[in-house]
């Protein structure tokens, strides 16, 4: 990032993550807009920042863009219904990196665009996406293979085994279960009503809540089609989620007396040669982002590398010697709590800021691989 004003994170909040399945997601009867509006309402009620002060609103989304509930200008619709009348609004679409890209675009509006307040968000609801939208989003248009098949092939070429996959996934469930309530206790989750104004409410991640995972269950799970080691249990789950970071200029944060949580120091993107190489992408993206942030890999305290499949964090741990096993996705990841595609980048930003602040650490990286053979990464400094 070139020199500009600091982009200060003055708000970090998300919804709980619904299961993403039509049969049992608590959020399946909500529209994506309704989910976003509930979180926005909680966010504004917790601060002194007026809604009309938001000047830029960017939303990362993938499958919900194909929903009949999204018609014209969905980001602007949400902004107006939320009372953000002055917000220039738009959608960011970069496959699984959409949410992180939206966060970056919001931060850049503050850093270089003369904007005082901007929100970068991610929003996707897989439980009420139209037939074929989810499978289409998880299929490579060049090879016609599923992302699971491609990651499975690449991971085997890299020497990973079914045992590696199952072990990593089991640890993800353990970590997520241990920290299930930390986000809500510390105020990073907005309770979402899925039964009208009087409830019932969901305030913890649904997939983690109702899945009791044992090593035996993990090992006995059948393979996904076309795969030799990837199963429904050791790969990411569907999800329904909305998450956002609110950015402010230093002067605006002081004016409204807003607590500063973090600063976004740097963002980078990286490309690989073939579609199957997408699981390797975070390594290149993170190295670029850390260099842009003028930090070293030794400076980073924790690494949130999206768990679309275990191959991505496993390869990252293998190639980045500074990234210790216990510091990569230290509170679990999408294998346990779900991967709401376009929302996940913003979800990970909220999770990473919560975890790093709670543990008294300083620097954290968020990175996601995405189709087709790409990855993104961001570096945050906790303030």
Question: How do the strands and helices of this protein lay out in sequence?
Answer:
Layout: E1 8-14, H1 32-45, E2 56-60, H2 74-82, E3 88-92, H3 98-111, E4 117-125, H4 133-137, H5 147-157, H6 162-178, H7 182-185, E5 192-193, E6 201-202, H8 206-210, H9 215-220, E7 240-248, H10 250-255, E8 262-271, H11 281-292, E9 302-305, H12 311-319, H13 334-337, H14 344-358, E10 363-370, E11 374-382
Parallel strand pairs: 2-3, 2-4, 9-10
Antiparallel strand pairs: 1-7, 1-8, 4-7, 5-6, 8-11, 10-11
Any overview of this molecule?
- The structure is a single chain.
- The radius of gyration is 19 Å and the shape is globular.
- Helix 2 links the parallel strand 2 and strand 3.
- It is an alpha/beta fold and 383 residues long.
- The chain has a 9-stranded mixed β-sheet with strand order 3-2-4-7-1-8-11-10-9, sandwiched between helices.
- The chain has 14 helices and 11 strands.
């Amino acid at each position: 990032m070139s020199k500009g004003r600091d982009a200060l994170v003055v708000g970090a909040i998300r919804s709980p993550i619904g299961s993403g399945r039509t049969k049992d997601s608590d959020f399946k009867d909500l529209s994506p807009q309704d989910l976003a509006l509930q979180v926005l309402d909680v966010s504004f009620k917790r601060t002194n920042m007026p809604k009309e002060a938001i000047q830029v609103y960017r939303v990362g989304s993938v499958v919900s863009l194909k929903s009949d509930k999204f018609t014209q200008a969905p980001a602007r619709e949400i902004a107006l219904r939320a009372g953000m009348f002055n917000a220039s609004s738009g959608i960011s679409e970069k496959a699984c990196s959409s949410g992180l890209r939206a966060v970056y675009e919001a931060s850049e509006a503050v850093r270089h665009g003369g904007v005082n307040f901007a929100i970068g968000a991610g929003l996707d609801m897989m439980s009420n996406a139209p037939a074929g939208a989810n499978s289409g989003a998880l299929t490579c248009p060049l090879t016609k293979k599923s992302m699971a098949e491609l990651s499975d092939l690449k991971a085997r070429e890299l020497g990973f085994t079914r045992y590696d996959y199952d072990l990593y996934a089991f640890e993800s469930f353990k970590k997520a279960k241990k920290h299930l309530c930390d986000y809500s206790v510390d105020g990073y989750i907005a309770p979402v009503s899925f039964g009208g104004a009087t409830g019932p409410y969901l305030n913890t991640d649904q997939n983690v809540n109702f899945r009791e995972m044992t090593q035996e269950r993990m090992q006995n799970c059948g393979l996904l089609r076309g795969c030799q080691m990837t199963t429904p249990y050791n790969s990411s789950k569907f999800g329904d989620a909305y998450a956002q970071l609110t950015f402010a200029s230093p002067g605006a944060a002081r004016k409204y007396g807003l607590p500063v949580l973090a600063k976004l120091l740097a963002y980078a993107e990286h490309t690989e040669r073939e579609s199957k190489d997408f699981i390797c992408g975070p390594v290149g993206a993170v190295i670029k982002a850390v260099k842009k942030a003028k930090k070293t890999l030794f400076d980073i305290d924790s690494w949130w590398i999206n768990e679309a499949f275990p191959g991505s964090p496993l390869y990252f741990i293998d190639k980045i010697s500074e990234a210790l096993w216990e510091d990569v996705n230290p509170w679990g990841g999408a294998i346990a709590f779900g991967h709401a595609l376009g929302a996940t980048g913003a979800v990970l930003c909220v999770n990473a800021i919560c975890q790093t602040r709670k543990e008294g650490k300083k620097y954290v990286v968020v990175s996601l691989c995405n189709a087709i053979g790409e990855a993104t990464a961001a570096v945050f400094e906790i303030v």
